[in-house]
Amino acid sequence: MTAIERAALPRAKAKSPAASQGGNPFPAPFSLRCGALLIDYITLISIVVVGTLIARLLGGGARSSGTSAETVGILIAVVAAVLNLGVLPGLTGLTLGKWATGLRIERDSGTQIGIGRALLRHFVGYPLSFIILGIGFLVTTLTVRGRGLHDIIAGTIVVREGSF
Predict the structure, then answer these.
(1) CA-CA distance, 80 to 92, in Å (whole number)?
(2) Residue at 21 is within a domain
(3) How does DSSP assign the chain, residue by residue?
C-alpha cells in the first residue's frame, strides 16, 4: 500500500459511547454539572468529617485537634480526591458525581481525556474558576458547547451519557 493510499483511508478515532450513539453528544446542562460537583465534594468532605469524628472520639474530645487519626482522615481525603478527580476521570471520563448524574468528561475530539488532562482540569482549572469569584463556572451557561474555564484550559467538554 502506497503512502497516498494510506492517506486516503479514513482514520478511526476512539469515540466515546455518547458520541457514537447519536453523532454529536449533547452538552451537559449546568444544573446537572452543579449536582455532579456537589456529589464529588460532599463525598470528599464526608471523609474528612468522619476522620475528624473518629479522632475526637479516640482522642478525648473537642480540645484535642491535630491528632494522628485526624491527620490520617485528611490524608485519606487527599488520596480520594486525586483518585476521584484525576485518575478515575482520566481512565473512564467519570467522577463519582458525573457517574451519578449520567455525565461524562471528554476531550473536544470525543476521546478519553487521560489522567494528565483530568488533573489539569480539576487541580488547576477548578481553582482558577473559583478564584475569579466563580465566573469560570458561570461561563458554562454562556458558551454554546457549555464549557467552563476549567474545560477550556484542559480542552474538555462535559456531555450527557447515553440518551436522555
Answers:
(1) 16
(2) no
(3) --HHHHHHSPPP----HHHHHHSSPPBPPHHHHHHHHHHHHHHHHHHHHHHHHHHHHHHTSTT--S-HHHHHHHHHHHHHHHIIIIIHHHHHS--HHHHHHTEEEEETTSS---HHHHHHIIIIIHHHHHHTTTHHHHHHHHSTT---HHHHHHTEEEEE-S--
N-term to C-term CA, the chain: 44
Residue 162 burial by Cβ neighbours in a 10 Å radius (0-12, 13-18, 19+): exposed
pLDDT per residue as tens digits for the range 73-130: 889 999 999 999 999 999 999 999 999 999 999 999 889 999 999 999 999 999 999 9
Q: Count how many domains the chain has.
A: 1
Question: Tens of pLDDT along 37-50?
Answer: 999 999 999 998 88
| Radius of gyration, alpha carbons of the chain | 20
Residue range(s) defining the domain that contains residue 33: 27-160
Residue 22 lies in a domain: no
In a domain, 89, yes or no: yes
Q: What is the pLDDT of residue 29?
A: 92
Residue 8 lies in a domain: no
